[in-house]
Amino acid sequence: MDSAPKYDIVIVGAGMAGASLAAAIGARARVLVIEAEERPGYHTTGRSAAFWSESYGGSGVQPLTTASGPVLHELGFLAPRRALTLGREGEEAQVAAFIEEYSAIGLEVEWFDRAEIESRVAGVRPEWICAAFEPTCCDIDVAGLHQHYLAQARKAGADMWCRAGLAAAERTGEGWSLSLTDGRRVAAGVLVNAAGAWADPVARMAGVRALGITPYRRTMAQLAVTPAATDDLPLVLDISETFYFKPENGRLWLSPHDETPSPPCDAAPEELDVAVAIDRFEQVVDWRIDRLEHRWAGLRSFAPDRLPVYGFAPEDPAFFWFAGQGGFGIQTAPAAAELGARVLLGEVGGVIDPAIYSPARFS
Fold first, then answer.
1. Residue 93: what are its φ and ψ, rounded to 5°?
2. What are phi and psi for residue 224, nearest 5 degrees?
3. Roughly what angle, to the nearest 10 degrees, separates helices 16-25 and 333-344?
4. What burial letters (b/e) apply to 212-244, b meaning 16+ CB within 10 Å?
5. Are residues 111 and 177 in the same domain?
6. Last residue of some domain: 253, 270, 302?
7. Do 221 and 163 share a structural domain?
8. What is the pTM of this model?
9. Do residue 325 and residue 198 come from a single domain?
10. In this predicted model, what pLDDT tens digit does every residue of 296-348 receive, in sequence order?
């Protein structure tokens, strides 16, 4: 192994998580990012219909989202969208509780009645009588943000190898001896697990206890509709989390808000899930669906408590978790990378307590 290149830190995964962390630490350590696919971001990052919403992911994720907002705005990767979380007759109390919960921690959330809903979403069916309106919700330029972090990582000095997945990890006195799927070997002081849906398998390969991070399939469909999905349409969700849709370049992106447990894989949409999405959409508005143009699926990976996992494995100080970001890894990327870099490099300070997201909570 003496002939193998040596790095302070090897990051497994070049999606948003791995790229953002590499950008944050690349100038302060010798860093290598390894990626099994032929290009970074092939899986979840490249399939996201991401939006920035401070309520999305719950109150445990909100500090990361809120802290990321100014950075995303400054970098120019956010565009105003607004969000409308609808409630049917009989769901008024759920909508009110949603507004109360997030207003209590300082978020801007308003009650909308039927008339206000109709002013934002034409043709909404009569059973939808109330909503929570979030004027701060934005679209995220996911591809632009990911490319920004990849460029920043390279500029900072990090190396990146694609088509080079982790094949084996052997613990040594100085860290790790790693074998890659392209036949190369590399030595690492610290191994960072930013492998998304493959986070638990990577841990097992390294002899570290898996945390129960489970991938779930999420389905998306692109529709052409009449009336056309104009750019001023808000992100529309429902309080029971059974659908969401938003405009995208004159088309409509629709999801049935599904969460189907899946093995780590190249996720593909199921016909039934697409049909469910369309059926639910037709129960919201009276628009005509002209055609289904595209469908896809991605995997969103959650720890058992639905919070991300950032920190060193309690049983191995050379193994670092940076995983379990669920569906909010894009909108929290700047703050998560800053927090992860701080913990990984042993720095103090910061406004977010890293203990909230530490893997030690599962010990």
1. -65, -35
2. -95, 130
3. 50
4. ebbbbbbbbbbbebeeebeeebbbbbbbeebbb
5. no
6. 302
7. no
8. 0.95
9. yes
10. 999 999 999 999 999 999 999 999 999 999 989 999 999 999 999 999 999 98
